[in-house]
């Protein structure tokens, strides 16, 4: 097993992120004063609701005003005619280190087999390329905030590579430092490097101009023994950072919410994912303690047992804060439109809130993003309604949940910066990102051999 303490000491300042960028030389990603004019504004703010025609004024990354015929002299006008303006999506559970492995699965060779065959082969350069590929894909699909659930943080250099990708990726995020995949179940996690990362990048609480905050994800009892997990939890709690845990998709029931509550482990800073085995009593405790849930519909239906639909309905009935996520790209696409359509028996307004404001609240960012509210940061997307799959239009929330796809996303603002415009990513060198991803994927597939060996050309 890699000794992170030794690596952290030996590498030290040499691990600082170099000053490179993936943005095209012509891209302008500065925050400006913008007037988004004449769109149908779906605010996901219960006090404002849906405005059939309105303007949104953005200045230096902040939402300054929302309303009709705003006076915004000096602002650059973004015409939103025949578009829906909405908050950017929030994906609360995404294993971004493996984005380049989206197509490693095959018939008879599913997700966990592919992960076991490749996870130890990722070098720091590979995870940089993978996370950046994932961030660009998210931006293209209208996701402006992501929880990077980094559950293969193999060394300090790997952690730095992921953070370098976040700096270049320009999206809002939580980076949750995790374990080394396939480490022994009975060995506690070494969280020494979390302290270095926190000091080096998050001394002011956030990194990269306020876009990224730090968390920890733990293996839970699905991947560790009870003594090891208890040691992991104590070490994480001492650091006072948000904690994320996989709560299980199949029996046995590995999370006893009553026990977690007695130990002081639950609350708004603990995010549980999946938890298909939860009892009604567990759900009531999560609701009472304000412990949020990340629900990944594709993953729950494909990898879970029992009745995922029934479990989600019971979570919602109990009043648990439910957010939406995609898990890993080899399980599901980074497409929150499709994810919303897999949520059972929820109204269009409710499911849209789960994909935006609910996710922001689950990550502790409810006062920052998730709705079009004056004072929040400008994480916004514009969706074309004249596209063939959305015409002839109708109720705006219905349109977004029932029919829209990433292809309809015309413009994306991340913290007041335009990263997609006219249906094209403008803040990323897409060709370079794809070339790097292909190079890393080919190297890993070749090293893994067997079923992953690419065909001869």
UniProtKB/TrEMBL annotation:
Residue ranges of every copy of the Amidohydrolase-related domain listed in the record: 84-419
Signal peptide (UniProt feature, chain positions): none
Gene Ontology MF annotations: hydrolase activity
Record key words, sorted: Hydrolase
Protein name: TRZ/ATZ family hydrolase
Pfam family, one: Amidohydro_1
Cell inner membrane among keywords: no
Gene3D superfamilies: Metal-dependent hydrolases (3.20.20.140), Urease, subunit C, domain 1 (2.30.40.10)
Species name: Lentzea flava
